[in-house]
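User: quick one
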Amino acid sequence: MSSVQGNAAGRPEETSRRGGREARRALRAAPLAVNDRPVNPGMEGGRFQALLPADIEKIHRAALDVLAEIGFADAIPSCIEAVTAAGGKLESNGRLTFPRSLVEDSVAKAGRHFVLHGQDPKHDMEPWGKRVYFGTAGAAVNIVDPVTGAYRESQVRDLYDIARVVDTLEHVHFFQRTTVCRDLPDPFEMDVNTCYASVMGTTKHVGSSWVDPAHLKLSFEMLHLMAGGEDKWRARPFVSQSNCFVVPPLKFAQDACRCLELAVRGGMPVLLLSAGQAGATAPAALAGAVVQAVAECLAGLVYVNALKPGAPAIFGTWPFVSDLRTGAMSGGSPEQALLSAACGQMAHFYDLTGGTSSGITDSKIPDAQAGGEKAYNHALVGNAGANLIYESAGMQASLLGFCIEALLIDNDILGATQRTIRGIDVTEEALSVETIRSICLSGPGHYLGSEQTLRLMQREYVYPEIGDRKSPNEWTEQGATNIVQRAVTKTQAILKSHHPHPITRNIDDVIRARLPIRLPQEAMGW
Amino acid sequence: MSSVQGNAAGRPEETSRRGGREARRALRAAPLAVNDRPVNPGMEGGRFQALLPADIEKIHRAALDVLAEIGFADAIPSCIEAVTAAGGKLESNGRLTFPRSLVEDSVAKAGRHFVLHGQDPKHDMEPWGKRVYFGTAGAAVNIVDPVTGAYRESQVRDLYDIARVVDTLEHVHFFQRTTVCRDLPDPFEMDVNTCYASVMGTTKHVGSSWVDPAHLKLSFEMLHLMAGGEDKWRARPFVSQSNCFVVPPLKFAQDACRCLELAVRGGMPVLLLSAGQAGATAPAALAGAVVQAVAECLAGLVYVNALKPGAPAIFGTWPFVSDLRTGAMSGGSPEQALLSAACGQMAHFYDLTGGTSSGITDSKIPDAQAGGEKAYNHALVGNAGANLIYESAGMQASLLGFCIEALLIDNDILGATQRTIRGIDVTEEALSVETIRSICLSGPGHYLGSEQTLRLMQREYVYPEIGDRKSPNEWTEQGATNIVQRAVTKTQAILKSHHPHPITRNIDDVIRARLPIRLPQEAMGW
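Assistant: Done. Structure below.
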């Protein structure tokens, strides 16, 4: 048992002599063993059902119909070759169709239960079943100042800073690149530096993306250097590729497909990303948007498994929502929560590792609108049990802006969401009949300082990092701050002090000699 | 079918000629029939399960044990008389215990499926099954300025203003008194004016409370005048009594019991309110807090049904949460969401109308913390299908402060929550295979302006009232407002113009001649 429990149980008299409040304070100061934490990465969701089992079957069958009867346009020759060899058909209209049996066979042999590695093994993730992990993502083009609301172009330095902040956050479990390095107009420099800045900023699992296989090839050389050799990289690939292989509806993105093929060969897990937008590039009917996303990701799965059976691929159903009045994206809408939750459930149906998005807001700044939109999305998508929840922190303006300080605000929302995923413990002990009896019939008539209360204080309750729970008087006396102000202060402290160094400076020198790294070595705290 | 659908379906050629955006704008301007709205009061929840069926059974059995073996202290003579006549036992330790069969019989004969009336019948609620309604509540002692964060004492005028704002909000379905009239130190004046200001500010169903049966007796006279006679009041009682009959753990509140008895006799529905605080006045183990709340409300139900079988009573399990480090309440915590969701499910188990709380925040102001805490609570408690969700708008600082402008922010969160409760329509038409086929094989390759998109625009999608979905550029050009600023502007407009007059000025004069009404008639827009 934990030392915390041991302490509390071991000194009941002392506790009651000293009073509950003092005892609770002493207890709170003690470090908590990982297994005793109220929440941990990868807890099991599944208590929210956007779809009932019969709905899931219907969506599956409709997706099979779409693939068999409509199929994909714009397949590249290597894709056509691999997929037709597996049983796909190139139709007279040029579309590649996928017979139902091919899709079902591909699902059966698909890679599942693969670990997503961190550079530090303590961050390894096991995202299958109904286990839930939260991470960032995005390709925001602006950084938002949370106080002034000013937008400016995002740079490589921002990406590194964001990764460093994520590295410190308990409830953000992986880092996928969040922002476009607009100071690096050359696509090769952008691709290489995006991967570099991400991997150097955090030892958590990283997702990145590439626009050209040649860029990926050189990035692989860098990753092998970082890992200490290709064999070590292949044993623990700590970067996955976010790959938009499909331009919805149902067209292959040709350059992305070439990058996908290289990733599969290079042992890099692929996030098969279908990001249609309901009412624009996907049906406005939510069920139809899920059907299309599932069909598109199933096609990607057939493709990957035709290249290499069992290659690790994430079922990345990310349907987005349009505000149908304007056609603009609305990532903070309630319809988004339903779509992403439903997608999490579809991955369960196939027993695949599912990725989806949650936690985008339409607000430009981290105000109450942002908090609200992020939280109802997370509560439902997280409790649906989606395995990998992308875009979960920092994102503003429906993917157009990223706010570094919002990461800390969102970390609190994610911690709370995780607590709801953990759920209610309903053991005999937790039902508390004996505790109630003792308090009412022979005790003090309240539960403050009781043995049960002290024991559960840290193991059952989550506390916010920057959320404020003071009384109005205390809060006013201490400066009446809002959560943005507290986030700014804490972010500055993190950025000043936290520089993970996953590789040695010597290896970094070797990388810099071979590749145009644009993040100054002096900025990296060495 | 709706005129919206008829229009869209009736002019496909015109639509495609004019372009999707213009057609969408024209459509948006048309009024929408109530039945075609994407959300309506009283939609069915139940898709989130904080408790599994076996957990619910365990909690039920534990609650029966608590009532049979521990029982209640401090019963008043009339309570002892009624309950022992029904089968309860006064034990030698002075506690009133409730045999399991008595509790089960009381549940069987309890009032269920009773309407909660508005003064205006369009606001009548049918809160049973898994139907969900959101309303306010609270006894906040301060009004918060959302811009400066300043706290000041709440007054009767504030209560009237809050009721008026609630009267205009689509997603707040009932009004329970939110704030204490601190300008009325006399308890009689406070009770009468609290009821008066609430009922005059909104024609939605009202909840109020009384500290003394004498105050309630005179309030009944007022309500009969307002209704047009006692018979009309009894036919459509539009005020329910929020009654804290229990001081947790398991002690009767004597004055509240006297008010309860009068309400039951007077045809006023009673909210049987058990508001223990986990870790302080209820067990720290969440399951135990639910057990205690259920036991307490079951005792209230036995009491009410011993007085008058079938009298309308709301099963008001409102367990709150302590921050166990300080003992202070934490209404915005994730543990709160689990407790309230579980309580909603317990009421389903008994087929009773359940009331619980959701949407309190610990933040002192409507910042991102407030938005986040409110939203994850609402998303889970609402989707659990709790029937009457109190404290759902405006509340700050864990019940110590109320922010009028936050009502508008929270109305957006509630609208979004309601959209998630409505869920995903999975009909053949919604699965959209034919739409996908037509768009991909013979259409424009996108869904903007398609017949399906236009038809679903207003019937399937909810739009925020003050939430902003503009692009960063447009938002910046239009003043870069945060949601608080927009809420302030809109609140001022409502308060300036909206004065419901549920009664005539002549009736009001009669009431004022009999009772010390402290809200100036001049302030009421007559």
